[in-house]
């Protein structure tokens, strides 16, 4: 199940070669690829465009990462250069090695069968589509996401139980919410997975995690006002310990239910179809980012766990997390605050982060 809002990025055909190539991409060794113009014409697909994003899938069709095209050239096969060949990440040291390897693939039975031409061959004048790309988001597996949610929920509950109940009335960076209000919002947000799993799976193609945070009607003033009011009402009906207990119970129930559920689609309350794992990534985002708000409001050290930080920074920065943190001179909590509007960024910093391929999400506060 891939995404309706992103085209697929498929390397070779499903099987050992694709597995090798996607591993090279994830390891950072492969940053270029070469297709044939004839292949795009055969499929009726548009050529990649710089800035365009796509989802890299494995041999089973599962998404592994979001790629961003950084450059595209149409070149004769004879004009492919060494720099491009080396960036393919397959160990080529000469253009001749690169060409021999690619000709074996292009002249192979699978390629000829796909094109419907048993005698298909390439020569010096064959037009190639040489593109460059980078990984901008990682798509974690279900077990990784579930473990991150469980760990972050446990850290949040422990952190809140360690402070006096009166401190739950402190203001947060999301006015007019207090700590208890923002906790209520976060706990209810995580609990929605249970209702979604009780509903029939949607049949439409899913959207990506980043698309869930698109700046549309779901983040309009009316929707934000409804979030504020419902969280306040939910929190006002419970004592602090009751609210913390409920949060713990709901997070545990979600973890258990998701662990026992086979891969499937769910429909969000906004009507978006999503892979269950991708929706759970948004729940980790809720726990991690709102958890930072709560720890900041309480004046205690962040309880952000490594598991949750890996999932959220993987979504936002892909393999560029270290570079982004160095650019801002901050740690991972500081990086998440900056990327989600909790800490101000200068225009130059935002431009530099965008240059790294940062995936910006619509989150409050602005």
Entry summary:
The protein is of the alpha+beta class and 366 residues long. The chain has 15 helices and seven strands.
The computed structural class is alpha+beta
General shape: elongated
Level-2 CATH architecture of the largest domain: Up-down Bundle
> What average pLDDT do the residues reach?
95
The ordered string of helix (H) and strand (E) elements is EHEHEEHHHEHHHHHEEHHHHH
Oligomeric composition of the shown chains: single chain
CATH superfamily of the largest domain: dinb family like domain
CATH class category label of the largest domain: Mainly Alpha
Q: Give the radius of gyration.
A: 23 Å
What amount of the residues lies in strands?
A: 5-15%
What does the largest sheet look like?
Answer: 5 strands, mixed
CATH topology of the largest domain: Four Helix Bundle (Hemerythrin (Met), subunit A)
**Spatial sequence of strands, sheet with the most strands:** 1-3-4-5-2
Explain what the structure shows:
- The protein is of the alpha+beta class.
- The chain has two domains: 8-138, Sulfate adenylyltransferase (Roll), CATH 3.10.400.10; 142-355, Four Helix Bundle (Hemerythrin (Met), subunit A) (Up-down Bundle), CATH 1.20.120.450.
- It has 15 helices and seven strands.
- The strands form two sheets. A five-stranded mixed beta sheet has the order 1-3-4-5-2.
- α11 (276-298) packs across α12.
- The model has no long low-confidence stretch (mean pLDDT 95).
């Amino acid at each position: 199940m891939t995404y309706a809002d992103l085209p697929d990025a498929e390397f070779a055909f499903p099987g050992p070669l694709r597995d090798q190539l996607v591993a090279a991409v994830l390891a950072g060794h492969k940053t270029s690829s070469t297709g044939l113009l004839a292949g795009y014409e055969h499929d009726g697909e548009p050529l990649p465009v710089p800035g365009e994003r796509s989802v890299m899938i494995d041999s089973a069709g599962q998404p592994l990462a979001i790629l961003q095209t950084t450059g595209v050239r149409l070149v004769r096969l004879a004009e492919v250069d060494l720099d491009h060949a080396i960036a393919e990440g397959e160990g080529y040291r000469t253009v001749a090695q690169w060409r021999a390897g690619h000709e074996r693939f292009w002249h192979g039975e699978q390629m000829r069968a796909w094109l419907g031409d048993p005698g298909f061959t390439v020569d010096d004048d064959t037009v190639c589509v040489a593109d460059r790309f980078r990984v901008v988001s990682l798509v974690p597996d279900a077990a990784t996401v579930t473990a991150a949610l469980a760990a972050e929920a446990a850290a949040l509950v422990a952190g809140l139980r360690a402070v006096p109940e009166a401190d739950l009335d402190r203001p947060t960076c999301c006015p007019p919410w207090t700590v208890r209000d923002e906790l209520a919002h976060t706990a209810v947000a995580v609990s929605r997975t249970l209702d979604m799993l009780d509903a029939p799976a949607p049949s439409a193609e899913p959207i990506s995690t980043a698309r869930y945070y698109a700046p549309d009607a779901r983040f309009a003033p009316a929707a934000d006002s409804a979030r504020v009011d419902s969280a306040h009402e939910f929190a006002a009906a419970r004592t602090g310990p009751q609210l913390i207990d409920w949060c713990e119970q709901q997070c545990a129930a979600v973890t258990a239910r998701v662990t026992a559920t086979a891969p499937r689609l769910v429909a969000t309350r906004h009507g978006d179809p999503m892979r269950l794992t991708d929706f759970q990534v948004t729940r980790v985002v809720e726990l991690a980012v709102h958890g930072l708000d709560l720890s900041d409001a309480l004046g205690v050290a962040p309880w952000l766990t490594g598991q949750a930080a890996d999932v959220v920074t993987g979504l936002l920065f892909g393999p560029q997390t270290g570079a982004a943190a160095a650019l801002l001179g901050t740690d991972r909590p500081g990086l998440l605050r900056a990327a989600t509007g909790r800490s101000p960024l200068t225009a130059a910093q935002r431009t530099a982060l965008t240059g790294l391929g940062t995936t910006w999400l619509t989150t409050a506060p602005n």
